[in-house]
Design goal:
Number of helices of chain A: 26
Distance between the termini of chain A: 74 Å
Largest sheet of chain A: 6 strands, mixed
Largest interface: A-B, 57 and 57 residues
Strand content of chain A: 5-15%
Oligomer: homodimer
Shape of chain A: elongated
Number of strands of chain A: 8
Helix content of chain A: 55-70%
Number of domains of chain A: 2
Strand order of the largest sheet of chain A: 4-3-5-6-7-8
Radius of gyration of chain A: 31 Å
Chain lengths: 573, 573
């Protein structure tokens, strides 16, 4: 029983739940619900689904996360990047708006749940570490741009098409002359109102005497006000008849609970995307969770988070939803609004359920261009050009991987973008180790330290060459060592001893041992003895297991200073 | 003009060519030609081609290598592993024995030539370093086993089938009852004769007074004698009529020179295999070339070797051949027979041409089971179980990659085998760096050295914790550092200073910098200052470019001893 409870974090905190917690969670839930309604509808649109599916995906997953999650304030539901990845996957397989498309989204959520569960069981959360910060940051920026470009057609009421961001943009420009004026006016008007409220509203409110804490909340609710205003305008002036596309009739009520039927063919076609969605979703969720946890001084448990996200996705699939994860903007609102426990999520789910049950008729006249404006403003926070410049300045290889990710997302698709980013960053890291930095070193006077002879005035001995290799020795650089080390010796015609200083050698493998053996035997023929110094524990273990030490022509010394003096003594002997 | 000559190594050595060289090269060529005839026929059979194509692939490529190659004794032509890879690629696409199959082999040679040329132009030879020694060794062993298993059907005159070694073996056992007795007798007899001549002939010959140098050559020619003997037996007793399958009628003459027509579809289906064949072929050729060059004290130039192999493959395609590379056994024979320059190769090509022109009728009665026996004995030298045990003993991860390669080759196919090997060895190397060895260190009394406090009696100070991280800091281990370093500090409640000793940190990237910044700011809140010591030059450059130093709460010290004393002074201040 205790074992089961270990996987139900709610069992730990619920017994201590207090009235004040309930008040705080309830208040937070009201604010988050209001903010989530337009956002959920909008992200469903990003995913290529009818807007109401955004509400469906914002009910059960929140309840499940309340039971299983370890973050107090993470809010799980539809988020921009995951919605985009869902759309890109399904677009290639099913016609937009078809039953199969909608069904495919649920299958994708179910498969993501399964992938996350497998990751939890086999403790594969570390796989997300393969996505470097620059690649993730580039991916977010490019996804933000792609979402903005693809939503612009809804904003302007045109029908641009394309397989990537550039084609979409090009098609958009071609269609500018057939823009629906009413739609564009509402869309761009909403956009300006939302941007304006972000930039100026907080200051205005504070000037008007609103407490700063409240003003921040009110700004977050600006999309709700804009949405309601536009619904009113459209209804009043019957703008539907002027070509303004609206959300239309939404079936009231909650989704029927049933898991999608899944067959081998679905798994085959959707699993690769599900794996990427799970990885990206988990990275986003974990980083949001960790940031918020650090602020409120509690800890999140990565493996339990995998279980919680798995449950949330399966719950989403159960309620006809699409893949979900912990989102940044919704979680920040939840945190700022003072949520005290994960129960705030369940309260929010109740709020969304009430909306789905009773308020859907309200959204029938909601113009799609307003939702597009809300999305564009929301995802603009993903775009961070400054980070791109900063990364390029710090590291060319990180900058390269980041740019490749951005280009991949914009010119091909999001999956290829992230895959290119991960593979190139691993490849470049390996390439960096393939030609290790090698320095000939000498003794720094009046010390026990050895430094590069090219950079410092150091003491050397004509019969002894000391080479420091600043890298683990393994198959990728083994041949390079074999080529280079003898070349270094050529410059020292009186050399009788070579000391390899191994302070930077963290591991060694069979290929490198083969190469070292070859180097040692070649140098032996030329009358040069090879010694090792500063060999680390794990490396020494491998040398001993492989009987390498027995073939070594010289000795192994604990530190370079001892090595140098011992070998010098041999020379003078 | 000089620029062109730089790519024609023959221009350097031909002017100094002497009569004695010609004698040596001529003698070597006779021996190699005799040895190559059965081997070429046999490897064509491994490639799934009519035996005569083995002769075709052994003429022009040798001439081209004479012009372009930098090894004095490397012999280029059909080799076992490349023939096997050719067969596995074509088997999946075309029916065995069809015109398309034969034509496909030429296209594969042409594409390999193109891949090798591209590798030369863009200096991509380093890509072969991604194949670790254990993976290559496992690949060779498994390929040897696979060839033996697949040739056993010819040896016994049965028709076993299967998609991998296990299926082939299983099918072979099922068919044992329908073995053709005459075929099996000739096959197994030849096999025993060849094995016997390897094991006992040298000793016998030496006992009989043959000089040891000659006895080795005679043993190498054993396949020729066995072949001739069997041809005689089959002809004499008309064994073809008893179900012994023979090579059959071979068109006399040289192949017509023409490059295969190639279209986009061929490139699409054959390029991946051509890339793998080129990589494996180049690794084999380069390692054979390097080993022999070291013995005769000359140097081979890897990039020129790429050009030479590219030319050899294009020449093979031009003469209806299949992919070729520098082979171990043929090169060793060439070397042992005293070849003095690459002209020996051209002389060999003349010998093979004469064979193709005038002696093909001789092979009409050559039983396929003899060729199978020759192959089996030849490839048995590829199999090295001792190496597998040695690798496992030295390194679990190398052993794992090696075993995965072996299993991949035997259970799936050669391509998957080598890909699994390369990917797993890179993955395991990266995993090894994902949880770096971290040690808390203290000052070794009466020295300036700092060692692990768990292994040595060292001096420490309650206010100072020094942590040594034995790995480059990069995206794969950034999160691990973020999790672990604060945990180490918890054990030292009086800690006011943390010194990160960076002697094992060879590089640092943006992700790791992000994590370090987080660690530093978190520790700052807990009243702990972070210092760095022994930062290497390239790492220091990155720290400065990224303005990291400005955010560092403490100082940067050239060595740990200075850092320790400076920080101690701050504490006592």
């Amino acid at each position: 029983m205790n074992k089961v409870l270990a996987y139900l974090p709610i069992a730990q905190w619920l017994p201590g739940y207090q009235k004040t917690d309930a008040t705080q969670d309830g208040l937070a839930a009201i604010i988050v619900t209001l903010m989530l309604i337009p956002q959920s509808l909008a992200y469903a649109m990003v995913a290529g689904l009818p807007p109401v599916y955004g509400l469906y995906a914002s009910i059960l997953p929140l309840v499940v996360y309340t039971l299983l999650g370890t973050s107090k304030t993470l809010s799980v539901g539809p988020v921009a990047v995951v919605a985009l990845m869902t759309a890109e996957t399904l677009n290639e397989l099913y016609p937009l708006g078809s039953v199969e498309y909608i069904y495919g989204a649920s299958i994708l959520a179910l498969l993501s749940g399964a992938v996350l569960l497998i990751m939890a069981v086999f403790r594969l959360g570390f796989l997300t570490h393969f996505i470097s910060h620059p690649v993730l940051s580039g991916f977010m920026t490019a996804s933000g741009i792609l979402i903005i470009v693809s939503q612009s057609k809804h904003l302007l009421g045109v029908t641009s098409q394309g397989n990537n961001a550039v084609e979409l943009l090009f098609s958009l420009f071609q269609q500018l002359n057939v823009t629906n004026l009413s739609t564009a006016t509402i869309g761009i008007g909403s956009l300006l109102a939302l941007i304006g409220s972000r930039l100026y509203l907080p200051r205005c409110l504070i000037k008007m005497g609103t407490p700063s804490r409240w003003s921040a909340q009110i700004v977050k609710l600006a999309p709700v006000f804009v949405m309601l205003l536009c619904i009113a305008i459209v209804s009043l002036f019957h703008l539907q008849t002027h070509g303004v596309r609206v959300v239309g009739i939404i079936p009231s009520g909650l989704p029927a609970l049933s898991l999608p039927n899944i067959n081998l063919h679905d798994i085959y076609t959707l699993l690769p995307a599900a794996i990427l969605i799970s990885l990206v979703g988990f990275v986003e969720s974990a980083s949001v969770g960790q940031t918020l946890a650090a602020k409120s001084n509690h800890k999140i448990l990565p493996n339990q988070e995998l279980i919680a996200l798995s449950g949330a996705n399966i719950a989403s699939a159960l309620s006809s939803g699409f893949p979900v994860t912990g989102g940044l903007s919704r979680s920040v609102v939840n945190f700022d609004a003072g949520a005290s426990t994960p129960l705030a999520g369940t309260f929010t789910a109740i709020g969304i359920s009430l909306t789905a049950l009773y308020f859907t008729p309200l959204f029938e006249s909601l113009p799609q261009s307003v939702l597009a404006a809300i999305i564009i403003v929301a995802v603009s926070s993903l775009i961070d050009f400054k980070a791109i410049f900063h990364v390029w300045k710090t590291s060319k290889s990180d900058g390269f991987s980041m740019s490749l990710t951005v280009l991949g997302v914009l010119l091909i698709n999001v999956e290829i973008g992230i895959i290119l980013g991960v593979i190139s960053s691993i490849f470049l890291h390996i390439m960096r180790t393939s030609r290790p930095h090698i320095a000939v070193v000498g003794l720094l006077p009046n010390s026990q330290h050895f430094r590069n002879i090219d950079r410092y005035e150091v003491e050397t001995c004509a019969n002894i060459v000391t080479i420091r290799i600043d890298e683990s020795l393994y198959f990728v650089n083994a041949q390079y060592l074999e080529d280079k080390i003898p070349q270094y010796i050529v410059d020292y015609p009186d050399a009788k001893h070579l000391i390899l200083m191994c302070s930077g050698v963290n591991t060694v493998d069979v290929s490198a041992l083969d190469s070292l053996k070859k180097i040692i035997s070649d140098l032996k023929e030329r009358g040069i003895t090879v010694h090792l110094s500063e060999v680390k524990g794990p490396v020494m273990d491998i040398l001993q297991h492989s009987h390498f030490i027995e073939n070594l022509s010289g000795g192994v010394y604990i530190d370079q200073f001892t090595a140098y003096h011992s070998v010098k003594a041999i020379c003078n002997h």
